[in-house]
Amino acid sequence: MILEATGLRKRYGDTAVLDGVDLAVAEGSVLALLGPNGAGKTTTVRILGTLTRPDGGSARIAGFDIVTQPRQVREVIALTGQYAAVDAQQTGRENLTMIGRLLRLGRAGATKRSAQLLERFELTGAADRRVVTYSGGMRRRLDLAMSLVAAPRLLFLDEPTAGLDPASRATMWDAVGELVCAGTTVVLTTQYLEEADRLADRIVLIDDGRVAAEGSADELKARVGGDRLELWFADRASLEKAAVVLDVPADPQETRIGIPTDGSATELHRVLDALRAANAEPDRVTSHRPTLDDVFVGLTRRTLTTAGSTR
Amino acid sequence: MSATLTMVGRSVRLTRRNVDTMIMSVVLPLLMMALYVYVFGGAIDTGTAYVTYVVPGTILLCAGYGAASTAMAVADDMNSGMIDRLRSMPVRASAVLTGHVAASVARNAVATTVVVGAAVAMGFRPTASPLDWLLAAALVLLYVLALSWLAAGLGTLARSVESASALSFVMLFLPYLSSAFVPTETMPAVLRAIGDHQPVTPIIETVRGLLTGTPIGSAGWVGPVWAVGLLVVSFAFSVWCYRRRTRH
């Protein structure tokens, strides 16, 4: 295990942001911390990245204690924060060379490493333009490149694709995929189920400062049972009535309700009869394999989009 | 050390490219000086050509504007994630502050040169010997360093660039309550008491005396003592602010 954390706690004033988080990450794997806004994902990453001291619990990265040996930990890790930390008035190349010089690669070493990273992140053409002229996707790529100057063994990515368009998101995913192929361990936070599903070997569902569930995407999906039944409603009133009958949360942004099902015709009949009796019949019914969204609702009884706003 | 040099290089580069900063720290004091010399100067009796009187004050005013830019640049780094990037690397992240202070000194050197040059064009005729110039420059440097470290500390505490700019207004304001633009004897008693006993007045009187031969008197030691004292306190303040903000 390159990273082992036990019982991480952090309070800000009266709020327990982290309330005992345990993590274990095998070298070369990708762990996704999945959860709504305010769940404690960023705090976890900041603590592991030696930026914030935990109030309780401990963690070791590559055998070094994050609180007592931050210097050694920093030799191993790199952290890409939620907002691209790049100098808008420097060029892409200058930003990268600056990091290389700080890491004592020397002038020639820093120049060479910058050129490699610019090439790899398809920024060579824009290398000598100021970052202020870059698109959001280019900034994020440069930000990631800056974290890779030292070739870290463990990379933390805090919401690496938040606010990116689908094409830039796909490019970031490819970049992370390549890193992992090259043996880098990645811990990323995300609110996007698709991102966790696609990139992560293991997923830790975080809700309200605690680990709600942990496992591979398939294991987590298996935990909420077999197929899912989706019921689509013509109007909000019948959706809300149906939610009460079925005892599930009603997502204000959705026009459907998802429930677990064993896939049998008998169960379908039972559900529809119950809804008809309550005068809350759906328009349309579909069934599908569970998604991580279903997992989140099933395990926390909240939806990803509403969970943040209940805090 | 190499981290510091890298961050100095970065801050100087950013300063050069930031048009706002250059305007604020060079053009603004220049305009102020022209305004004082040509608009108000005629009505202010200082016993000499007003341009001769106003040069030392303008130089110190420059330092204030330059420091305000420093506070904003530091606040930007503290809040944009740059400091977090550096702190998660095996480098001394506080080098970012040293970089901004060094850039502030460089910026002020340019601003001061421009101001003195413009003043000469407006009729300023200094009588200083090379040694006087050197002493005056050293005193101004101490003052600039003190203000820059103070600004770096304020920038570290500020939660946004805007609040950093607001916090640094004191540094812009002090020269107005000194003998920078009018002799303190012309002020009402309360203001005069403030003016005579705040650090800017003796520093200005010393610089003025060195450049134009006016009597320096006790300002000759009070000014430098103030400047050194301010520098020590500002540096300690800035270290304290940085530790407080990054206490992990």
Automatic annotation (TrEMBL), chain A:
- Molecular-function annotations in GO: ATP binding; ATP hydrolysis activity
Q: Which GO terms describe its biological process?
A: daunorubicin transport; doxorubicin transport; response to antibiotic
**What subcellular locations does the record give?**
Cell membrane
Tell me which residues make up the ABC transporter domain: 3-233
The UniProt entry, under PROSITE patterns, shows: ABC_TRANSPORTER_1, ABC_TRANSPORTER_2
InterPro entries recorded: AAA+_ATPase (IPR003593), ABC_transporter-like_ATP-bd (IPR003439), ABC_transporter-like_CS (IPR017871), ABC_transporter_ATP-binding (IPR050763), DrrA (IPR005894), P-loop_NTPase (IPR027417)
| NCBIfam families reported in the protein's UniProt record | drrA
In its UniProt entry, what is this protein called?
Daunorubicin resistance protein DrrA family ABC transporter ATP-binding protein
UniProt organism field = Pseudonocardia sulfidoxydans NBRC 16205
Per the UniProt record, the lineage of the source organism begins with: Bacteria, Bacillati, Actinomycetota, Actinomycetes, Pseudonocardiales
From TrEMBL, chain B:
ABC transmembrane type-2 domain segment(s): 20-245
Alphabetized UniProt keyword annotations: Antibiotic resistance, Cell membrane, Membrane, Transmembrane, Transmembrane helix, Transport
Membrane-spanning parts: 21-44, 50-74, 95-121, 133-152, 164-182, 221-242
Taxonomically, which superkingdom? Answer: Bacteria
GO annotation terms (biological process): response to antibiotic
| Pfam families tied to this protein | ABC2_membrane
Q: What is its main location?
A: membrane
Can you quote a single GO CC term? ATP-binding cassette (ABC) transporter complex
GO MF annotation, one: ABC-type transporter activity
Membrane topology, from the record: Multi-pass membrane protein
Its localization reads:
Cell membrane; Membrane
What the record says about family reads: Belongs to the ABC-2 integral membrane protein family.
Q: What is this protein called?
A: Transport permease protein
The organism is Pseudonocardia sulfidoxydans NBRC 16205
